[in-house]
């Protein structure tokens, strides 16, 4: 799935930056461009043999800067600049995109190391994230104006973009974000078929988590509530256990509000139960709130039946036309 002419969204024959489907497809293609940049590097494809450029040039973008991981010299992100003649009032001037894990080739070991940091809620302490934040702050300080900058990423890259977006939102800068298959660190409750059991587990978890947070007098509430003005776009597939818990996370919050106990869930949704238990035992390694928890988002769910986990987790699903994409929050 590297050649844009064979695999890209060729159904997009016109540019309409006001159309959410177009914006989603473009953001996904720009992430794919980062994947192909790294594959071009590994396979030593240069000049006319390189395949990456078509993934951004098709929509009027130039490659402004590659983002390089200093640990292994791999390309993990890119800053794109939209040519002035290609834009409109609804188009971004810049897009910063981050790829996910490459399971083959030279970058796999470093990517796997970053995946472990995601699981341990330590992504913010990595050199790759430092490079990412430097890039975001550079574009914001030099060219930012309203919706001029998009953040986008897939899987590990979505975690990177989400954390960068949260960091900027805490400073009062709310960036448009397109986060594809972002990791949600939780037990796979969403895979339970019995709705009563599933919601019972979520309710019990919320009560316990909120109780522990109150007992520990956790101070992250004001920081978390301050993020409510930021509405990143989350794109998830229910057959992808890496991101599917976002579906239940937001659905459960709506249910708790309906039951009149939304305050419990609003407190619980700011914390991970595992992190609080580590705090109780004195083994918590970081005071950072779980990077994946956010108070609000625009959630899009791909209900198209997936034939495999690879299909459910793939970036390609998000530039394809589909009649089973549902806006759920």
From TrEMBL:
The keyword Cytoplasm does not apply. GO terms for biological process: lipid metabolic process. One of its GO terms (molecular function) is hydrolase activity. Keywords: Hydrolase. It comes from the Eukaryota. Residues 130-174 form the Fungal lipase-type domain. InterPro entries: AB_hydrolase_fold, Fungal_lipase-type. It holds the Pfam family Lipase_3. Gene3D superfamilies: alpha/beta hydrolase (3.40.50.1820). This is Fungal lipase-type domain-containing protein. It comes from Genlisea aurea.
């Amino acid at each position: 799935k590297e050649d844009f002419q064979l695999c890209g969204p060729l159904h997009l024959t016109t540019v309409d930056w006001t159309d959410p489907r177009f914006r989603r497809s473009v953001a996904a293609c720009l992430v794919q461009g980062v994947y192909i940049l790294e594959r071009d590097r590994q396979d030593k494809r240069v000049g006319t043999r390189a395949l990456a450029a078509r993934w951004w040039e098709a929509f009027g973008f130039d490659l402004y800067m590659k983002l390089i991981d200093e640990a292994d010299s791999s390309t993990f992100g890119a800053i794109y600049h939209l040519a002035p003649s290609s834009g409109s009032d609804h188009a971004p001037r810049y897009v910063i995109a981050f790829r996910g894990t490459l399971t083959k080739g030279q970058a796999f070991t470093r990517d796997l190391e970053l995946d472990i940091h995601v699981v341990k809620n330590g992504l913010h302490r990595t050199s790759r994230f430092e490079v990412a934040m430097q890039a975001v702050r550079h574009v914001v300080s030099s060219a930012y104006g309203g919706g001029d900058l998009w953040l986008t990423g897939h899987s590990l890259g979505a975690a990177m973009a989400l954390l960068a977006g949260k960091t900027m939102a805490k400073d009062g800068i709310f960036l448009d974000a397109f986060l594809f298959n972002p990791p949600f660190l939780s037990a796979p409750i969403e895979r339970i078929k019995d709705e009563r059991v599933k919601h019972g587990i979520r309710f019990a978890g919320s009560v316990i988590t909120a109780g522990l947070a109150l007992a520990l007098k956790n101070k992250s509430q004001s920081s978390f509530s301050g993020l409510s003005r930021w509405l990143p776009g989350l794109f998830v597939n229910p057959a992808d256990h890496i991101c599917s818990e976002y579906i239940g996370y937001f659905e459960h919050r709506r249910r708790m509000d309906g039951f009149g106990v939304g305050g419990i869930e609003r407190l619980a949704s700011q914390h991970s139960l595992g992190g609080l238990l580590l705090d109780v035992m004195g083994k918590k390694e970081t005071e950072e709130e779980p990077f994946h928890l956010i108070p609000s988002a625009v959630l899009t769910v791909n209900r198209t039946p997936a034939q495999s986990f690879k299909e459910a987790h793939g970036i390609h699903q998000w530039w394809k036309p589909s009649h089973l994409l549902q806006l759920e929050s």
